[in-house]
Amino acid sequence: MDLSFVILVEVLYAIASLVLISAGLAVVFGMMKVINLAHGEFMMMGGYATITAVNLGMNVFVAMLLIAPLVVGLIGLVVERLVIRRLYGRLVDTMLATWGLSLMFIGLATMIFGNTTTGISTPITGFTVGDYQINGYNFFIIVVSIVLVLCMLAVLKGTRAGLIARGTMQRSDMAAALGYSPDRIYMATFFCGSALSGLAGAVLAPLVGLVPTSGGAYIAKAFITVIAGGPSLIAGLVSSATSFGLVSQIFTFTISPVIGEVALLVAAVIVLRLMPQGITGRFFKGKL
Amino acid sequence: MSLNRREFLGRSAALTTASLLPYAAYAADTIKLGSVLDTSGIFDAYGKPMDQAMRLALKQINDTGGLLDRQVELMAYDTQSDMALYSQYAQQLTRQDQVDVVHGGILSASREAIRQTMRKSNTLYFYNVQYEGGVCDRNIFVTGVTPAQQVAVLVPYAMKKSGPKVHILAADYNYGQITARWIKKFVEDNGGEVVGTDFFPLDVSDFGSTVTKIQQTAPDLVVAPLVGGAHLSFFRQWAAAGMKDRIPLASTTMGVGNEHKVLTLEEGNGIMVAYNYSQELDTEANKVFKDQWQAEYGDTTSIHELAVSTYQGILLWAEGVRQAGSVEHDAVVEALETGISIDGPAGMVTLDPQTHHATLDVHIMEVENQGMTVIETLPQIAPVDTQAVCNLQENPDDNQQYEIQI
């Protein structure tokens, strides 16, 4: 009983962390069709922003939930103005440019923070469930990702800004004809996507040690989740994170963590073989 | 002033010759020591202090009159944490610079990249890093600890303090795999039992499910030869789950690159380790060494085991050259094979003629307030793992890295 509860928490945590690391990419790549290979580095910068802010004496939650997304969002804004906006619609070129950006960010972070692993300890203590101890921070990550998904849903579905953004991504010429500036909307959307990546990096930072190359560990999982999710932004994100999180944790618990990681990749291959358009290409069609 | 082409060529030729002359004269009577280390890139936390330690040792040798009345000249290359550069610079050191000895290499992959080049060109090679053991080659000398040297000391101590059931978490490459086998052997030799073994690729940083799995096997002790920044997360997540006060931890790697200074007090305190060196060693030799380091670099916080190992490697080589009375390859190797020893910052280090590995003191320590408190010192532990497979006295032509079967 205790064990099944602990495993349930671990599964939910695995799903939540996949949602978290993929949310920013779902906006930038899923919505805007910009292949952002610097996604992992945006997360890494979110982590460093948090650690720096905490070391300057700021409350850790303010740093994670406010400062880091803001800082990374602003960096994203600069990147969009200088590089990305010249490359909309040119997939291969954006790929090359963002790969270059990722190398540049790694270099800059190394120059500023050095190469040693840094980190802050988790702000929430562990607690006991029967015979087991659970990391209390796991619950925090689960809550953050649920709130995140609800917020994205509310903004995209409930607000005028979300409607305009979605419309512009589908037919920017039509949006322009209606009097909106696609250039500005693209800019704002990229800001939001970067801020989400920064948030993910910030929230995960207390769990892992941070080095300038940390971003590389997330990029593959984020792309797999978003691509397997398919065309619908939120339904795709949630459904693919759920499937992959479940599969990887089942194998992790029954065999080993390494097999768990492999199972995630194999599951992704199978999903894309059966559903080349992603999960939401077949199910939940037309959902957001 | 205007120069025509002929004048310009003439003058620059003269200048070049002039600038080369003193160099050539100087170079002729120096001993050349080559170094290849990652002093930038992702391994610089290991490489930079090693480089500093090497320069400190050479400065001390040169300030006291050099070796054989000759100054030692350093030819140092930064391999930038890029494996390809190791082969390139190794070639450059042997062919172009024609050095008398090479010290360097950090990861096992870098050592293997250099080792064959050195062997072919008959250039003496020192590898000054803790590694997985088993290298058997008459041309190489190893001054770091091997798994058996640490595990043989650490496991009995940790088991005595906790209990007989052990769970092993190891990095999934040759170091972790081999060390895990040694841990299993010494756990069983001491009447214990391994209840679980998990291997993790180097980039795994999420240990949530592992923490749960360990609780399922309910061990008395967790031994963790985990490697690198991503694996450091384990210690953090273990503490965050509140496990640290329930099941004690021991590690053969945590702290080699000063990792314990990154963990907070509640995350690090109490982790048991065993190394040849720690900054907290309370010996006269260590105090002198730290003072010298302080005088040279202004700050001793970066000193770690690998740096001291490098320092001791240079001292051993220098002692070999002194006893041989020459820098000629075979003479130095023979001198080093006489069971030569030096007193380093971490105590006496003796070269084992059979394996060319070091016999040295190992200290059992516990992490305390981002330092390592020495609990017990075990003097002169031999590299038993490599001795089990390698005998250079009987097979001087041996050239391979044995995988030690236990």
Name of the CATH homologous superfamily of the largest domain in chain B = Response regulator
By oligomeric state, this entry counts as heterodimer
Average pLDDT across residues of chain A? 92
- Category by helix and strand content of chain B: alpha/beta
The overall number of domains of chain A is: 1
Biggest interface and which pair forms it?
Answer: A-B, 46 and 42 residues
Please state roughly what percent of the residues of chain A sit in beta strands, choosing from under 5%, 5-15%, 15-25%, 25-35%, 35-45% or over 45%. under 5%
- Uncertain ranges of chain B: 21-27
- Summarize the main sheet of chain B: 9 strands, mixed
**Number of separate strands of chain A:** 2
Mean pLDDT of chain B: 90
Largest sheet of chain A: 2 strands, antiparallel
Described by the principal axes of the CA atoms, the overall outline of chain A is: globular
Helix content of chain A: over 70%
Order of helices and strands of chain A: HHHHEEHHHHHHHH
Q: How many domains, in number, for the residues of chain B?
A: 2
Residue fraction in strands of chain B:
15-25%
Membrane topology (chain A): Multi-pass membrane protein
Organism (chain A): Pseudosulfitobacter pseudonitzschiae
GO molecular function (chain A): transmembrane transporter activity
Subcellular location (chain A): Cell membrane
Give a verbal description of the structure:
The complex is a heterodimer of chains A (288) and B (406). Chain A is mainly α and 288 residues long. Chain A has twelve helices and two strands. Chain A has helices spanning 2-31, 39-55, 60-82, 91-113, 137-158, 160-170, 172-177, 182-204, 216-229, 233-254, 257-274, 279-282; strands at 127-129, 132-134. Chain A has a two-stranded antiparallel sheet. In chain A, a hairpin with a 2-residue loop joins strand 1 (127-129) and strand 2. Chain B folds into two domains: 5-145 and 282-361 and 381-401, 3-Layer(aba) Sandwich (Rossmann fold), CATH 3.40.50.2300; 147-275, Response regulator (Rossmann fold, 3-Layer(aba) Sandwich), CATH 3.40.50. Chain B is 43% helix and 21% strand. Chain B has helices at 5-28, 44-63, 83-96, 108-120, 147-161, 174-189, 208-217, 228-240, 265-268, 284-297, 305-324, 329-336, 384-387; strands at residues 31-37, 72-78, 101-104, 124-127, 135-137, 140-142, 165-171, 193-200, 221-223, 249-251, 272-275, 341-344, 347-351, 358-368, 371-381, 399-401.
